[in-house]
Amino acid sequence: MLPNFSTTVNRNKVEYLLAAMQQESFQVIGLPKLPIAKALEWGREMKKRSPQADTLLFPCPHWAVVEAIDPLEQELGVTVVTNLQATLWHALRSLGLKDTISGYGRLLREL
User: Fold this and answer.
1) Which of 4, 35, 72, 75 could form a cystine bridge with 43, CB 3.0-4.6 A?
2) Domain boundary assignment for the chain
3) Is the C-alpha dihedral spanning 88, 105, 44, 55 positive or negative?
């Protein structure tokens, strides 16, 4: 789950999800969160494998990589796009809002 809610809301969502899955006889072994260090590592590895790349894409909306966007853009000199960030950008533009948001990469800051 993305950590964009309060701890209480996140806990409630996790408890609900765990209960629903257990009710259906799923064996739940955990709900991991992607550490920022892993997102940074993946971004560096993508750029290393494709040095000509000007954009890195993190397509899964369930990867909590928002904190890695700006550091990767600054370090690697690329644009970083995530599913959540692109969804937010599209929603804002669909509503006719052209506001920019700093701290979450070039897509929200400039475009």
Assistant:
1) 72
2) 1-31, 34-110
3) positive
